[in-house]
Design brief:
Elements (H helix, E strand, L loop, with lengths): L2 H7 L12 H18 L5 E11 L4 E12 L2 E5 L3 E5 L3 E6 L4 E6 H7 L14 E11 L2 E10 L7 E9 L4 E9 L3 E12 L19 E4 L3
Length: 219
């Protein structure tokens, strides 16, 4: 099982300069800068979301509900069939159906795709941005900004579309557009900054999963 495959079925994964013109680029930079300032006060985060995966190559669709807790570079992601734990050094991916747990290096996995601990600050990484204007989602006025990976390393996605409510600096939707024809739309359902999180949330405890098969993929 590959980490990028799980990301395609789940997370938001959600957040320069382009050739669309000076005014648009300045607006995008200003908005993302305001989001960064807002994110500095988040502290621990607890959020829920719904996701819809569309694989055009195989004509496949999947809808899923998920929740995530974040504290610094640590995160816990509950996807129903999968639970993913990370203490910032190690990632444990537990597959409920077969009682398997895959162990990976967090740094290596982050290089292969998006880092869930940066779900609400991904725009601060090496991205170019493009202001796309305003639109409405379920009657709510939002601003559309595109992010494009910069640098030499190719990501499994080519674009992240952000839809932001500027009035309260709230991410409403993110769309991750994959290079292999798979798109995932994430709608943020609830978002709680400065959340009180339980201890032990970010490390996999095999004692809580009797008979679990540990598969260590670390180099």
């Amino acid at each position: 099982m590959k980490w990028t495959a799980i990301l395609k079925c789940t997370l938001l994964a959600a957040f320069a300069w382009t050739s669309t013109g000076l005014t648009w680029a300045q607006d995008a930079d200003a908005l993302l800068s305001r989001l960064s300032d807002e994110a500095k006060g988040y502290g621990s985060i607890q959020a829920t979301y719904s996701s819809k995966l569309i694989d055009r190559a195989s004509d496949f669709e999947s809808v899923q509900q998920g929740s995530i807790q974040i504290d610094g570079d640590q995160f816990h992601l509950d996807l129903g069939d999968y639970r993913i734990f990370s203490d910032g050094i190690t990632i444990w991916t537990y597959e409920l159906a077969v009682n398997d747990c895959y162990i990976e290096d967090a740094e290596t996995m982050a290089e292969d795709g998006m880092d869930p601990s940066k779900l609400f600050t991904i725009w601060e990484d090496d991205f170019k941005n493009e202001w796309k204007g305003e639109t409405k989602i379920n009657g709510e006025l939002v601003t559309h900004v595109n992010l494009y990976p910069a640098g030499e390393q190719e990501k499994p996605f080519h674009t992240i579309q952000l839809f932001i409510n500027e009035s309260d600096l709230r991410l409403v939707r993110a769309v991750v557009k994959g290079r292999e024809g798979t798109d995932v739309t994430y709608d943020v359902v609830t978002f709680q900054p400065n959340a009180s999180l339980e201890k032990g949330l970010f490390k996999f405890n095999s004692a809580e999963f009797p008979g679990v098969n540990l598969i260590d993929n670390r180099i």
